[in-house]
């Protein structure tokens, strides 16, 4: 029997659920298969603020040697690392240790250049921000990615999927299957599966024409289609399409389409340093005033006001983002 030492380097933003999912998979594996032994080590990357949940383990003591695998855990993007921790992580990577990032744990790896040229699963909420900050990383919308000696999972239940893949690689598919049964996991998902919930589940409806229409809208954000064009593409009349939207979404197609574009614009405002004019044009608005007016009517603030307020209130915004001149 060989003992594998697995380290978990935890940032204060890590939620208890993320850590519990990772730990539970390893504990169940040892329970269902006595020959599997994991020595789990929990290290705190930073001290938690007063009032935050008590992080497990001990503060990082300056050493990371001895781990066969190391997972970095965070649920909000860390903004900086000490030079000592940066050096230790780079040394560990050079030694050939398998290193992973769970949820926002991909950020510190990318900040150190340890994901340059690698595929990395990034949660859909951070896709725009991550792609802009780390263009050398091949950011994917997969549940998880295993690329050579780097492991990444987008977060949530994908943490289980990734660790089941680790078990299968280390000890065989039979053990991974036994652990998934113990955890009442319906099926073992492949890493390449996409993160987003199927559209019909998000809409609360399986009406095929509604699904087709919304997919068309999502694929044509920068150059919006007219309601007549959408109806023609999905082979219904305009009135039929309007009735379907009213029945299932309680709004007309043009209103739903506008909200879709505005929500995409807001995501870009918060996650990228693109100018307001660039964002408005990329979300299908013909001019800055048109974008600003529609945005204010929907969100109650102009794009500039909303961006400034979010940045001033969030400790996780990019400190390096240039001032908006658009």
Integer average pLDDT: 86
Quickly name the level 1 CATH class of the largest domain.
Alpha Beta
From the N-terminal CA to the C-terminal CA, the straight-line distance is 62 Å
Strands side by side in the biggest sheet: 3-2-1-4-5-9-8
What is the tally of helical segments?
Answer: 14
Write the H/E string, N to C: EHEEEHEHEHEEEHHHHHHHHHH
**Percentage of β-strand residues:** 5-15%
Structural class: alpha/beta
What does this protein look like?
The chain is an alpha/beta fold. It folds into 2 domains: 3-182, Rossmann fold (3-Layer(aba) Sandwich), CATH 3.40.50; 199-313, Orthogonal Bundle (Arc Repressor Mutant, subunit A). The chain contains 14 helices and 9 strands. The chain has helices at 16-32, 83-94, 106-111, 127-133, 158-171, 173-182, 199-203, 208-219, 227-233, 238-249, 253-271, 276-282, 288-299, 303-313, and strands at 3-10, 37-44, 58-59, 69-74, 98-103, 119-121, 138-140, 144-147, 150-153. It has a 7-stranded mixed sheet with strand order 3-2-1-4-5-9-8. Strands 6-7 form a two-stranded parallel sheet. Helix 1 runs parallel beside helix 5.
Task: Note the topology.
Layout: E1 3-10, H1 16-32, E2 37-44, E3 58-59, E4 69-74, H2 83-94, E5 98-103, H3 106-111, E6 119-121, H4 127-133, E7 138-140, E8 144-147, E9 150-153, H5 158-171, H6 173-182, H7 199-203, H8 208-219, H9 227-233, H10 238-249, H11 253-271, H12 276-282, H13 288-299, H14 303-313
Parallel strand pairs: 1-2, 1-4, 2-3, 4-5, 5-9, 6-7
Antiparallel strand pairs: 8-9
């Amino acid at each position: 029997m060989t003992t594998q030492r697995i380290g978990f380097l935890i940032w204060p933003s890590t939620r208890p659920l993320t850590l519990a999912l990772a730990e539970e998979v390893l504990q169940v594996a040892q329970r269902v298969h006595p020959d599997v032994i994991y020595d789990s080590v929990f290290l705190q990357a930073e001290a938690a603020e007063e009032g935050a949940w008590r992080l497990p383990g001990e503060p990082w003591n300056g050493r990371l040697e001895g781990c066969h695998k190391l997972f970095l855990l965070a649920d909000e993007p860390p903004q900086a690392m000490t030079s000592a921790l940066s050096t230790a992580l780079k040394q560990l990577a050079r030694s050939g240790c398998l290193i992973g990032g769970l949820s926002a744990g991909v950020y510190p790896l990318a900040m150190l250049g340890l994901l340059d040229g690698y595929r990395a699963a990034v949660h859909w909420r951070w896709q725009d921000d991550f792609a802009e900050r780390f263009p050398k990383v091949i950011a994917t919308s997969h549940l998880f990615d295993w690329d050579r000696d780097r492991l990444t999972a987008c977060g949530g239940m994908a943490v289980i999927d990734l660790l089941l893949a680790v078990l299968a690689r280390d000890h065989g598919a039979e053990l991974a299957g036994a652990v998934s049964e113990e955890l009442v996991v319906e099926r073992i998902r492949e890493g390449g599966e996409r993160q987003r919930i199927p559209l019909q589940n998000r809409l609360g409806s399986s009406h095929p024409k509604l699904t087709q229409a919304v997919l068309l809208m999502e694929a044509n954000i920068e150059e919006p289609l007219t309601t007549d064009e959408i109806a023609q593409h999905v082979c219904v009349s305009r009135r039929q399409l309007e009735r379907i939207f009213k029945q299932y979404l309680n709004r007309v197609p043009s209103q739903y389409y506008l909200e879709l574009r505005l929500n995409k614009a807001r995501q870009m405002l918060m996650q990228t340093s693109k100018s307001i004019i660039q964002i408005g044009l990329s979300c299908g608005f013909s001019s800055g005033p048109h974008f600003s007016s529609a945005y204010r009517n929907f969100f109650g603030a102009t794009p500039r006001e909303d961006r400034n307020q979010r940045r001033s209130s969030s400790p996780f915004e990019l400190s390096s983002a240039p001032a908006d001149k658009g």
